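step: validate -> pass
step: tokenize input -> pass
step: predict -> running
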Amino acid sequence: MKAFIERVFKSKKQKQKELLNEITHTEVEKQATEAAVEAIIKEVKKEEVKKEEVVTYPKPNHFSDCNCFKCLRWKQNA
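step: predict -> pass
step: emit ->
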């Protein structure tokens, strides 16, 4: 009877250790994924800032009623 009780308690302790190990592994994995996601978000924000830079075109020295490509582009962006 004593051997049976010891076996039951050993199995319970072993199950608790396994659960504890699983919990710690999942927490570590969550932290790693959160760090990776934050790094990706920072990279995306940097790329967006680079894309948002506005290109300014110099004013062409043409007539005021000129409709060439350069003048039209400058009028749209001005």
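step: describe -> The helical segments are 2-51, 69-77.
step: cleanup -> pass
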